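Ticket 4471: requesting a sanity check on a complex prediction with adenosine-5'-triphosphate. Repro inputs:
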Amino acid sequence: MTDPALVPMAPMLIARGVEKSYPVRRASPVTVLRGIDVLVRRGEMLSIVGPSGSGKSTLLYCLAGLERVDSGEISLGGTRVDALSQSRLAKLRRDRLGFVFQSYNLIPSLSAGENVALPARLRGCRAPDAAAALAAVGLSGHAHKRPGELSGGQQQRVAIARVLAARPEVVFADEPTGALDTTTGAQILDLLRAHASGDRSVVLVTHDLDAAARADRTLVLRDGAVVAELTRPSAGGILAALHGAAPSGAVA
Ligand SMILES: Nc1ncnc2c1ncn2[C@@H]1O[C@H](COP(=O)(O)OP(=O)(O)OP(=O)(O)O)[C@@H](O)[C@H]1O
Ligand SMILES: [Mg+2]
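Returned structure tokens:
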């Protein structure tokens, strides 16, 4: 009998040759992604770093099917995301993906608890234990509060609780610790790290090199292209790759 550990599992996400430009009025379009390849394995946490404007958020949006690519292929668990109709794509995102936005995107009229329960309600699933999900991000007793009654960092934690409570196959997180102090940020990274196991994966965009180094692999973006890939990264190795050096283990 074949050892199950030796059977290669189909990757969770494969992107090949992803290109994306945005039109600019009275000028030629700005090219943001220039033929990017990404592979995310099941149970893996992948981090993406790069200077501001290098295309990290755009790439995350494309991988999650929130933005259409101009060319290239994106497969999620064998489904060609780039070829889906709008309605099928919306269903796939609702049922299988979770996105933590750089700007939180909570529903202002709903309480924190209702925000956390919303994805499951939209899927027609049993509501998660919103109070427990909020407690896991350090927000016990805040379930009844509306986003406007919470600080930026607290809203960010509600957004993370909302995504994790739905237990999606892939969590895409854009700067999820950007508004958090070091201790709270570390707790959130522990939760994301714990999510990336078994059949579930995490793709994390961050400027925080220590956060990026918690991932299994790191992609370094510059000017819309992947310039390095590090396996079992260290913060120092990522910093060196960002500055153009080729640390051991980096693939240019
Ligand atoms: N909707 C859009 N229309 C036109 N240009 C855009 C649009 N979205 C992004 N861009 C441009 O694409 C480039 C990459 O933007 P993106 O937000 O992906 O960068 P980023 O790496 O996430 O930066 P940051 O670290 O500051 O969040 C920038 O030059 C930006 O101006
Ligand atoms: Mg960004």
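Notes from triage: Residues 56-57, 102, 174 surround magnesium ion (ligand 2) (CB under 6 Å). Leaving this open until the requester confirms.
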